[in-house]
Write a structure and sequence with these properties.
By secondary structure, the protein is α+β, with helices and mostly antiparallel strands. The chain folds into two domains: about 180 residues, Uridine Diphospho-n-acetylenolpyruvylglucosamine Reductase, domain 3; about 140 residues. The protein is built from eleven helices and 17 strands. It has a five-stranded antiparallel β-sheet. Strands 11-12-10-13 form a four-stranded antiparallel β-sheet, sandwiched between helices. A hairpin with a 5-residue loop joins strand 6 and strand 7. The longest helix has 14 residues. The chain starts with a helix and ends in a 15-residue tail after the last helix. The relative contact order is 0.14.
């Protein structure tokens, strides 16, 4: 455990004075995300800026430094029978909470438990002027004006250096089991859509390799009653299966060099008209597609399904990998970048070439 805020602040100030750029690095497990890192930039290492600053189990709030690993956080929570309900993926033992927020990563429970952005109560942040600022607080009602803390979700470090995060945590469910059924993809989309509309303790729903999986979690009586009502086989290794989905260790994700596309759609019961290998998660709201394609072509399909697409991993990352933005939104993002990082020091071009 170490508070390196002052050292990090000094490095940012030096970079600004010397007109240098900085690539922000934590555990180094998410380097595959976004566009290729600027090879001319220096490194701002967050991996030693670690530790639990404050934890109130009764109030369900934890404050941690950004370089703290997810494993350390989850171990501390488990001692109190609590957990991070957004189920952040571990891409390696060094996966940190700061990188999880910067990349806006959430696991199978996201539609029911909320995303990492939904759990953030406040942050501390180093801006491009070297100012160490605090946003938000440690209670949900402490939100006014621009919610800067949540703006960091998915910004890939382009809006500043996250040094500290306050999170909402939740009790671990009393019981959990997973049902599985053989089902074609199109049928599974409608099936998951119907099931999630019912007032039942469902906390995950996905389809892969011709099978649909539903996880039930909560009070033991509610879980068992729902399992009896819904048809399907109970799998013994349900926890291990969802862990493989959470950490993207399922065999579907085995080829880490091939292009992997992430579709986020607004019409869960429909699928982009695109043949190939699919993994459908979040009851249809998130789709993983494996295949060589052009981002511009996939954007057309994503918009038709009411959503967006990005090149999540693999393939050529020298060009744009995120869904293109309308001019109005692009202007807003550029203005925010100029406000938080006027000299363009942090992660230049990592999110978009124009940021």
């Amino acid at each position: 455990m170490a508070d390196l805020s002052q050292q990090l602040q000094e490095q940012v100030l030096q970079a600004r004075t010397r007109a240098e750029k900085l690539n922000i690095v934590g555990g180094g497990t998410k380097g595959f995300m976004g566009r290729e890192a600027n090879t001319q930039a220096g490194t701002l290492d967050m991996s030693e800026h670690t530790g639990i600053v404050d934890y109130h189990p009764v109030e369900l709030v934890m404050t941690v430094r950004a370089g703290t690993t997810l494993s350390d956080i989850e171990a501390a929570l488990a001692e109190q029978g609590q957990a991070l309900h957004f189920e952040p993926p571990h891409f390696g033992p060094g996966s940190t909470i700061g990188g999880t927020l910067a990349c806006n990563l959430s696991g199978p429970a996201r539609p029911w438990a909320g995303s990492v952005r939904d759990q953030v109560l406040g942050t501390r942040l180093l801006n491009g002027k070297g100012e160490h600022l605090r946003f938000g607080g440690e209670v949900m009602k402490n939100v006014a004006g621009y919610d800067v803390s949540r703006l960091q979700a998915g910004a890939l470090g382009t809006l500043g250096v996250i040094t500290e995060i306050s999170l909402k945590v939740m009790p671990t469910p009393a019981a959990s089991l997973t049902l599985v059924r053989d089902m074609a993809m199109d049928e599974a989309l409608h099936y998951m859509n119907r099931r999630t509309a019912e007032p039942k303790p469902i906390t995950a729903a996905c389809w892969v390799d011709g099978k649909v999986y539903l996880r039930l979690s909560g009070a033991k009586t509610a879980v068992e009653a729902t399992a009896e009502q819904w048809s399907g086989d109970v799998i013994e290794q349900g926890e291990a299966f969802w862990r493989s989905v959470q950490d993207m260790q399922h065999e579907f994700f085995a080829d880490k060099n091939a292009p992997l596309w992430r579709f986020s759609v607004g019409s869960p019961a429909t699928n982009p008209a695109l043949g190939g290998d699919w993994f459908i998660d979040w009851a249809g709201a998130q789709r993983w597609y494996k295949g060589t394609a052009e981002l511009s072509d996939l954007e057309v399909l994503a918009r038709a399904a009411g959503g967006q697409v990005s090149q999540f991993r693999g393939g050529d990352r020298s060009g744009e990998v995120m869904h293109s933005q309308p001019n109005a939104l692009k202007t807003i993002q550029q203005r925010m970048k100029e406000s938080f990082d006027p000299d363009g020091i942090f992660n230049p071009g990592r999110l978009y070439s124009w940021m």
